[in-house]
C-alpha cells in the first residue's frame, strides 16, 4: 500500500467519526467514497483508483458505527439505575480514582468507583463533591464511604449552558453524589508509590518558595492545568486573553523535553539518547495523566525518536495523521473532545502554515518572524473551532502570545528542571523554582494588563457546524490549492463573511424574550434588534454559569438597559457583568445598591421607562413590561397578603403573561390579572397552584421542569428542555 493510499484510508476513518455529528453521516461518507472518484479524476491525475475510494467509504461507515458501539452505557447494576425520584441521603462505598480537586463553588471533587450503595452491590463511576475539609488526606486508591444525596446529572436548562450530563457521559459516568461526610475505611495500608504522590511532591516543592499563585502556575505549565489545582481566577485570566494553551500540557512541553534531553546527551550514543529521551516522555505522560492532547504529543515525540534511532527523515504530517488515527482507534469518543481537537488543529497549523508565513515575513529577522508566525498559525487553525464552542474572539490574543512566548519558554524549561530536581531532592526543586518568580510574576502581570484593556474580547456568537466546516474548507483550500494560495486574502475575507454576515443579520432582526432557568431570583433577557434589556442578574454563580454564557452564545457585547427589581440587590453580580459586558443604563427601585460598582438610576413608582419597543414600570414591587402587544407582570417574592392587597386595590392590570417567583400565588391575583400564560422561576411548583392554573385554563411553564422559556412575536412560548430532548432523540 502506498503512503497516499494509507493517508486516504486514515482520513476516511477520521471523516467517519466526524460524520456522527449528522444523522446518517456515515452513509454520506460511504456515498462520497463511491461518487468522489468521478470528479476527483478530472482534477487529480495521480488520484488512487476506484477501489481505494470505495474502501475508504466503507471504512468511514464502519468508523461511524464503531463510534456508536463505544458510547458509554450504564450497566445493568450501574449505581445510576438505583437513583430514586426523591432526594434521599444515602451512603456509597467505593475506591477513589482521582486526586481531589477544588471546584468553583469551593468544594472538593473527585471520581469514585462505586461498589456498594447501602446494602446493594453496584458498579459505575460517580462524580462526587464534598465540603472542602472532607477531602483532607484523601488520595487515589483509598476505599471510602461517602454519605450524601445521589442524583442524576441534568441536561443544560439554558441556551449556551454547560451540558453537565454530556460531560459525565463522556467520562462513562451517569450519577453524581453531593456528599456531606467522608469516612475512610479502616485497615487500609497507604500506598508508598503513585503518580499522584510524585505530582504532589512537585507541586509542594514549587509552591514552597514561589508561593501562590506563581508556584501553582509553574506546576500547571509543566504538568498541565488538569493535574494541578490552579486558582480559577488565574485560569480564567489566561483563557480570556488567549493563553489557555500555556496551561495545557501538550506539544510545547514534549518539544522542550526532547530538546533538553537530546542536547544534554549529544555526546553519548544514539541508542542512549533515544532511551533516555523516551523515558523522559513516559515520565511526562505519567505526571500529566492520560489526556488526548498529551498522548498525541508523546506519540509524535516517539516518532521523532524512532526517526533519529533509524537515521530516517521524520515526516511530521504523516506522524500527526498516524497519531490521530491510533488515538481514535483507542478511543473514538475523543473526536469530540475539545482538547483533542484544539491540539491537533494547532499542531497542523504549525506544520503547514508557519513556513509560508515566515516566507512572507522575510523582511524581518528570522527569530522575530518565527515569534509572530507560530501564534498566528495556531490561531488561524483553532479560531473557527473556538467560535463554534465559545463564540468569543480574544482581541489581543496575537499580541499577548508574541510578548509572552519568551516568558513561557523560560518558565517551562525552568519548571521542568525544577520538577526533576523536586523528585530527587525537594529543597533543590524549591530553590530552582524560586528563580522563576520574576518571569512568572511578569507573565501574570502581562495577562492582567491585557485582560483589563477595553474590548479585550469580542463576542460574535456561536457559529453553526455547517459554518465551521465551510470555514475549514476555505482554510484547507488556501493550504493545498495553488490558485487559492495566491489569493489567501480572498479565502480570509470569505471566511469572515461566512461568520459575521449571519451574525449581523440575526442581531439586526431578532426580537426575543427569554426567561432564564435560575436557582435564585427571576432573570429575563429581551433582545430587540441588537439591543438588550436585562431584568435582574441573580447571584454570582447565576451570572457566571447562566447569564454570561447565554449572552455570549447570542453574541451580545453590550447591555443597553439593566433593571434590578430588588431594591436590596447586591452590586457584586452587576459588577461582574459590567466587567465582561458594558452596561449603559442601570435602574433600581431605590438608590440603595451596594458598592456603586455600576452607576444606577432610580426607577420611581408610576414612572414609565421606554426602552426601545418595550415599556417598563415598577409599582409596589410589581414589574410591568409592555413587550410589543403583550403585557407581562412580574411578582418577585410578593407574599400572599400583599398579593391579595394588590388585587383588592386594583393595582394589578390585565396581562397576557404572569411571571412569578414560583412560591405563593393567590386566586385573587389570577382573577385580577386574567393571564393566558403563567411562568414560574422555580425548581418546583406547589401542586395546588398547578391545579388552580389548570382550572382557569392557564398555560403553565416553570423553569425547573422546562428550562429557559423563550417567546417571539411570531411564535409560541418554547421550552429549552423540549428542544434538548428533541435534539437528543434525533441523534
Write the layout of secondary structure elements.
Layout: H1 3-18, H2 25-43, H3 50-70, E1 89-96, E2 101-102, E3 107-117, E4 120-121, E5 125-131, E6 143-151, H4 164-170, E7 173-184, H5 195-210, H6 214-223, H7 232-240, H8 251-264, H9 270-288, H10 292-310, H11 316-330, H12 338-360, H13 366-389, E8 392-394, H14 397-424, H15 426-434, H16 437-452, E9 457-459, H17 465-480, H18 482-486, H19 488-509, E10 511-516, E11 523-528, E12 531-535, H20 540-553, E13 558-563, H21 571-580, E14 582-588, E15 600-602, E16 608-611, E17 614-619, E18 622-627, E19 630-635, H22 640-648, E20 657-660, H23 667-673, E21 677-680, H24 687-695, E22 699-702, H25 703-706, E23 709-711, E24 718-719, H26 720-730
Parallel strand pairs: 5-7, 12-13, 13-14, 14-15, 19-20, 20-21, 21-22
Antiparallel strand pairs: 1-3, 1-6, 2-3, 3-4, 3-5, 6-7, 8-9, 10-11, 10-23, 11-12, 16-17, 17-18, 18-19, 23-24
Amino acid at each position: 500500500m502506498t503512503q497516499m493510499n494509507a493517508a486516504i484510508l486514515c482520513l476516511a476513518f477520521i471523516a467517519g467519526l466526524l460524520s456522527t455529528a449528522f444523522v446518517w453521516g456515515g452513509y454520506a461518507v460511504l456515498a462520497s467514497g463511491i461518487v468522489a472518484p468521478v470528479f476527483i479524476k478530472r482534477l487529480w491525475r495521480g488520484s488512487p483508483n476506484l477501489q481505494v475510494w470505495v474502501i475508504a467509504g466503507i471504512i468511514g461507515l464502519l468508523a461511524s458505527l464503531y463510534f456508536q458501539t463505544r458510547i458509554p452505557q450504564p450497566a445493568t447494576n450501574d449505581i445510576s439505575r438505583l437513583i430514586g425520584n426523591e432526594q434521599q441521603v444515602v451512603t456509597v462505598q467505593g475506591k477513589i480514582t482521582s486526586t481531589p480537586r477544588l471546584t468553583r463553588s469551593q468544594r472538593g471533587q473527585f471520581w469514585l468507583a462505586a461498589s456498594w450503595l447501602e446494602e446493594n452491590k453496584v458498579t459505575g463511576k460517580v462524580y462526587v463533591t464534598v465540603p472542602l475539609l472532607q477531602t483532607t488526606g484523601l488520595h487515589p486508591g483509598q476505599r471510602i464511604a461517602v454519605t450524601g444525596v445521589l442524583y442524576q446529572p441534568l441536561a443544560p436548562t439554558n441556551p449556551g449552558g454547560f451540558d453537565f450530563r454530556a460531560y459525565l457521559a463522556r467520562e462513562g459516568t451517569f450519577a453524581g453524589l453531593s456528599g456531606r461526610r467522608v469516612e475512610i475505611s479502616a485497615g487500609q495500608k497507604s500506598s508508598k508509590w503513585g503518580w499522584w504522590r510524585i505530582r504532589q511532591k512537585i507541586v509542594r516543592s514549587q509552591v514552597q518558595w514561589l508561593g501562590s499563585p506563581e508556584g501553582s502556575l509553574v506546576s500547571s505549565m509543566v504538568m498541565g492545568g488538569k493535574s494541578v489545582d490552579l486558582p480559577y481566577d488565574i485560569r480564567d485570566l489566561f483563557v480570556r486573553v488567549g493563553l489557555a494553551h500555556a496551561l495545557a500540557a501538550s506539544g510545547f512541553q514534549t518539544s522542550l523535553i526532547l530538546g533538553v534531553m537530546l542536547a544534554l546527551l549529544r555526546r553519548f550514543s544514539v541508542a542512549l539518547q533515544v532511551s533516555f529521551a523516551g523515558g523522559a516522555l513516559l515520565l511526562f505522560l505519567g505526571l500529566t495523566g492520560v489526556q488526548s492532547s498529551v498522548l498525541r504529543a508523546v506519540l509524535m515525540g516517539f516518532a521523532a525518536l524512532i526517526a533519529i534511532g533509524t537515521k530516517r527523515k521524520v515526516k511530521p504530517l504523516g506522524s500527526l495523521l498516524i497519531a490521530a488515527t491510533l488515538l481514535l482507534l483507542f478511543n473514538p469518543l475523543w473526536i469530540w473532545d475539545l482538547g483533542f481537537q484544539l491540539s491537533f488543529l494547532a499542531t497542523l497549523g504549525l506544520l503547514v502554515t508557519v513556513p509560508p508565513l515566515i516566507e512572507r515575513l522575510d523582511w524581518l529577522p528570522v527569530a522575530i518572524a518565527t515569534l509572530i508566525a507560530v501564534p498566528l498559525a495556531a490561531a488561524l487553525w483553532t479560531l473557527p473551532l473556538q467560535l463554534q464552542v465559545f463564540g468569543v474572539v480574544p482581541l489581543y490574543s496575537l499580541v499577548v502570545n508574541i510578548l509572552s512566548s519568551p516568558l513561557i519558554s523560560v518558565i517551562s524549561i525552568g519548571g521542568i528542571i525544577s520538577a526533576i530536581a523536586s523528585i530527587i531532592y525537594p529543597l533543590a526543586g524549591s530553590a530552582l523554582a524560586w528563580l522563576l518568580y520574576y518571569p512568572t510574576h511578569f507573565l501574570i502581570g502581562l495577562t492582567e494588563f491585557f485582560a483589563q484593556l477595553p474590548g479585550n474580547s469580542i463576542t460574535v456568537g456561536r457559529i453553526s457546524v455547517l459554518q465551521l466546516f465551510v470555514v475549514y474548507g476555505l482554510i484547507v483550500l488556501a493550504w493545498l490549492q495553488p490558485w487559492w494560495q495566491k489569493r489567501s486574502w480572498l479565502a480570509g475575507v470569505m471566511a469572515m463573511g461566512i461568520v459575521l454576515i449571519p451574525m449581523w443579520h440575526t442581531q439586526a432582526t431578532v426580537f426575543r424574550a427569554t426567561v432564564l432557568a435560575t436557582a435564585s431570583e427571576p432573570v429575563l433577557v429581551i433582545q430587540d434588534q441588537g439591543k438588550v434589556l436585562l431584568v435582574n442578574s441573580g447571584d454570582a454563580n447565576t451570572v457566571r454559569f447562566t447569564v454570561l454564557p447565554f449572552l455570549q452564545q447570542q453574541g451580545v457585547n453590550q447591555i443597553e438597559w439593566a433593571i434590578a427589581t430588588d431594591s436590596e440587590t447586591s452590586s457584586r453580580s452587576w459588577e461582574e457583568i459590567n466587567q465582561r459586558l458594558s452596561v449603559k443604563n442601570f435602574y433600581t427601585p431605590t438608590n440603595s445598591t451596594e458598592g456603586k460598582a455600576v452607576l444606577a438610576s432610580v426607577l420611581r413608582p408610576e414612572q414609565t421607562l421606554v426602552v426601545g419597543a418595550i415599556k417598563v414600570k415598577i409599582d409596589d414591587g410589581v414589574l410591568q413590561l409592555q413587550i410589543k402587544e403583550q403585557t407581562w407582570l412580574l411578582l418577585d417574592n410578593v407574599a400572599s397578603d400583599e398579593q391579595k392587597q394588590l388585587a383588592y386595590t386594583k393595582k394589578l392590570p390585565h396581562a397576557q403573561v404572569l411571571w412569578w417567583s414560583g412560591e405563593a400565588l393567590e386566586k385573587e391575583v389570577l382573577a385580577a390579572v386574567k393571564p393566558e400564560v403563567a411562568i414560574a422561576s422555580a425548581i418546583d411548583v406547589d401542586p395546588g397552584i398547578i391545579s388552580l392554573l389548570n382550572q382557569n385554563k392557564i398555560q403553565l411553564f416553570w423553569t425547573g421542569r422546562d428550562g429557559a422559556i423563550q417567546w417571539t412575536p411570531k411564535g409560541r412560548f418554547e421550552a429549552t428542555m423540549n428542544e434538548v430532548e428533541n435534539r437528543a432523540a434525533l441523534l
